[in-house]
Amino acid sequence: MRGHRFTKYIPPEQGPNSKFDQLFDIFQQLLLMTSGDVSEAMSWLSQLDRQYNLTNDSYGIGDFFEDLKKKGYVTEEKQEGESKLIMTPKAEKSIRKSALDEIFGKLKRSKSGGNHHTPHLGAGDELTSDIRDFQFGDTLDQISMTESIKNAQVNHGIGDFMLMENDLEVVEREQKTTTATVVMIDISHSMILYGEDRITPAKKVALALAELIRTKYPKDSLDIIVFGNDAWQIQLKDLPYLEVGPYHTNTVAGLELAMDILRRKKTRNKQIFMITDGKPTCLKEGIRYYKNSFGLDRKIINKTLTLAAQCRRLDIPVTTFMIATDPYLKQFVQNFTQVNNGRAYYSNLQGLGGFVLEDFQRNRRKNVK
Fold it and tell me: What Gene3D superfamilies does the record point to (predicted)?
């Protein structure tokens, strides 16, 4: 007798379900946590495998490591006479894409072409579904030929075809603009205190934002700066290797550098994202550092608020993402936000990416003057 025979489905070992891809997803997370140390990440992966049986008899950690080298994600480099495993640019790009998928994955449903929309219509960049009468200054490519010919036939008849100016209708265009963004990342020692890793989520958010801008908004600019006792700019390729140091929190230096970078940008839309977990505790006066870790120092706070006001006068909103919940820290952030007319979010580490995405999208809709 003929019929159907059912057996257990075993998915093929390829695509997103392959053993390599499963291990690679974990490996990329470990690379961020180890600041790009391939050897340490592999050691951690081996420990996880022993604890959670990530591999099987047909595919082990050794096979995964060989595939990493074959696929061009890691390579060996001579440093001080010794061979050291390092990430390749291909791996760095893959980490950015992975961070984008993890944090901003819902943007995949969007079909927009790649620049920031504004509320303004007119001689813009992208056609909309709105149709209006022709006005002096409209371009030929805006004319809706179907609607215009239909109007001419209705107004003048079919026998003697005429197309007059009052028959013409045009399709509205939507204006787009570019945005210059500076991300400030706190690398003071408190970002790894109390057994909580706060720097890895901060790095992941910055990587995701960078990949979002590079792929969806290529005309935008993104600059990344870090601040501890001092502030300095880092390249995107350096972000996975970022580590915290024995630093205080010099928010003033970070804001000064961010403002200096944005002053050189020609776009009207400028913004600063500041990811931090603590209060300002440091100020540079000439060649010496003024430090105070005991509560909110009036001298440091006043200087920080002065820069917040300067940003407001330059029409640069500062959005603060505070990874802390201490009441007195919240009060400082509220004062800072009020002076700057910016925004503040008090987030746990898991919700940080969602807040950054929400604010990035909101700031893209600033009016074009």
Answer: von Willebrand factor, type A domain
- The mean-pLDDT minimum among 22-36, 54-68, 130-144, 298-312 falls in 130-144
Q: What is the average per-residue pLDDT within 294-311?
A: 94
Looking at residue 16, its pLDDT comes to: 47
Mean pLDDT score across all residues of the chain: 82
DSSP-assigned states of every residue in 141-180: GGB-HHHHHHHHHHHH-SSS----GGG-EEEEEEEEE-EE
Question: 113 to each of 127, 145, 253, 341, 351, how far by Cα in Å?
Answer: 12, 24, 37, 31, 27
Burial (0-12, 13-18, 19+ Cβ within 10 Å), 317: buried
Helix/strand/coil for 334: helix
| Cβ(268)–Cβ(249) below 8 Å | no
Residue 83 sits at φ, ψ, to 5 deg, of: -80, 135
pTM: 0.71
* Residue for token pair 């959670």: 52
- Using alpha carbons, select from 137, 121, 125 the residue that is nearest to residue 177: 125
Cβ-in-10-Å burial (0-12, 13-18, 19+) of 346 comes to middle
* Residues 312, 339 contacting (CB under 8 angstroms): yes
Half-sphere exposure of 108 (CA within 13 A, CB side): 8
For residue 71 the two structure tokens come to 């696929």
The total of other beta-carbon atoms located within 10 Å of residue 164's CB is 11
